[in-house]
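Supplementary Methods, section 5.1.

A reviewer requested that the exact input to the structure prediction be made available. We therefore reproduce it here, unchanged from the version used in the analyses.
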Amino acid sequence: MPHRRIPALVLGGSGYVAGETIRLLLSHPEFEIGLVTSGSHAGKRIDDAFPHLTGPIGSQTFGSPQQAESYFKANKRIAVFAALPHGEGAAIVGPMAALSGKDAHIVDMSADFRFSDPKAYHDVYGAPHRAPGALKLFHCGLPDIDQGLPSKHISHPGCFVTATTLACAPLVDRDLANGSFYVSAITGSTGSGATPKPTTHHPTRNGAVWAYEPLRHRHGPEIAMLLRRMSTEPVSVAFIPHSGPFSRGIHATVFTRLRRAATVATLVDVYADFYRQSPFVRVSEKMPSLREVAGTNRCHIGIAVEGLDVAITSVIDNLVKGAAGGAVQWMNRQFELDESAGLEMPGVGWA
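The structure derived from this sequence is encoded token-by-token as follows.
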């Protein structure tokens, strides 16, 4: 009998995150792309939307959103990667998550299932949740921190939250910092999505860096939520995101104060021990560069200490580690595959 690969359904298939998910799945040893849906591109060839996938994707076309439900129900074993826009995916993903009796797992890459409480979602996103009954079916977390299988379905925390949480988690878990974290993070233009906006227009973005929604951005509460799980003491996060003049990547620098003096070497050892089970996090005294991780599922962390002051820099590829790669990593675990399957690709070097 030939080996049967696990069918994958990609929802919201014409955006950058979906395109990156498709790219990773094309070389995955166990997942096989069965259907990619798109409301705006239904019936069109996938490589027309993503020319860089020409060849491996063949002549496959986008399906319509209406096909997603029937395809999901037709496969008792299925991996669903949801890359729908924030606020739009809940009405589609929620009913799928509620179906039982299937070997089906969903990893949602939008913000729709990050909060388990519908009131918390409303407070942060300013709108009622469209599938509140499904919130309890998802666990929001990072596979590099959360061990085992915390839930049948997963909500991926996103790029800013991934980079920042990975930078802070060991200090919170080991109670080494005072609980107040100050974050300055820069994102590439792909973080704004595929639909053109004034802030992603090349003449505006090129050669410029600016802060937006300082101290009020929605990712601040999401970071704090994940860190508070690991602490019995209060945790606060002051988050300032920036738009950067590059296309992909997150460069996050976190500043905090230690509860007691420690050397850089000691902290590097603490981080290395904390992430000993993660194949994708590397920690050193060297401050990392975005180019080291472009196109990969890796997070590189650098640490600097002066007295009780500590600065941690974390870099990831926002489309891979911050979205599609993290989703594949979770899905590998959900189907009891090698966590690194399909994710051990080298970086692109000069992106």
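The CA atoms of residues 37 and 67 lie 8 Å apart. These observations are discussed further in the main text.
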